[in-house]
Amino acid sequence: MFLRIFLSLFLCLPISALAEEVQPEKPKQLLLVSFDGAGDNTLWQRSRDFARTANIRFTYFLSCTLVLAKPDAAAYKGPHHKAGRSNIGFAQSREEARTRLAHVWQAHLEGHEIASHTCGHFDGADWSEADWATEMKSFRSVLSDAWAANDAARDEPQGWRAFVEQGIRGFRAPYLSVPDTLFAAEKQAGFLYDASSVTRGPEAPVDKGGVSRFGLPLIPEGPKQRPIIAMDYNLFIRHSAGVENPSRSAEFEERAYTAFRAAFDRQYEGDRSPLQIGLHFVKMNGGAYWRAMERLATEVCKLPDVACVTYAEAMEVLEDGRVQESSGL
Question: pTM for the full model?
Answer without folding.
Answer: 0.91
